[in-house]
Amino acid sequence: MLHGGRGLVPAGWMEEMTRPRVTIEGDFAYGYQWYVTGARDRLECIGNGGRRLVVVPGEDLVVAVTAGDHDREPVGTAAVLEAVLG
Q: 30: part of which helix (H) or strand (E)?
């Protein structure tokens, strides 16, 4: 929400793009450019080189990792997410 309680993205579109469309494995699914998981009611965008955007609405939490390890296992990204999300 922006200042004054005004939303930036219409609520209907947020619901539509984060609705699971394809089940990947277990409770891990994919919406419109968002990975959706039942674990802590979490949404994720996963990009190249370990870039991640994790949103946990129930905890008012957003974690952004903007730099990573290109062309190898994103160890730094995993460490940041583990430290913050547990």
A: strand 28-30
pLDDT in tens, 21-66: 999 888 889 989 899 987 668 899 988 888 889 998 888 889 998 8
Strand partners, 63: 54
Cβ neighbourhood burial of 66 (10 Å; 0-12, 13-18, 19+) = exposed
What's the full length of the chain, in residues?
86
Amino acid letter, residue 59: E
Task: Decide if 25 contacts 33 (C-beta within 8 A).
Answer: no
Q: Exposed (0-12), middle (13-18) or buried (19+): which is 75, by Cβ within 10 Å?
A: exposed
Q: Would you kindly state where each structural domain of the chain is located, as residue ranges?
A: 3-85
